[in-house]
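note to self: dont lose this again. the chain is below, predicted strucutre after it. 139 aa total, dont forget to put it in the shared folder this time
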Amino acid sequence: MNKQKMIRHVVSLLGLLLFVFIAVGSVDDSGESGGSTRPTRPRGSSSTQWFQGGNLHKATVSEWKNASYQNKLATSADWLSATKWKGHLTSPDDFDRLKLKAQMLVNAVDEVISGQQVDYLHVAEIAVALVNMSNDFSP
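---
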């Protein structure tokens, strides 16, 4: 990689990091913008399995942009249940709260990547940065 391409790459990553910081600060608890362990709902719950079917764990930003909202939501739930939510999914109410947090994560990732020329990045890297830099995604 020549020096100019490396500089452009570094500037692009710094710009993306800036957008991550902005997105973390603009997501509220309602989920609105301003190799994982999959969650399993406790037995006896008849609610739709909204958290199943996510397959974007290794997706690029380009693939994420073209994925369905359901796929993004289920993948976000997987990421959260394998990290900050590990061991916290013991009741149907926990799954309701996880859904809100997964919606927030989908919105935050979408906000970070909107308008950016970062289609080659893996979306998991962005999600990890968002989850690690914000307390908003905790149980």
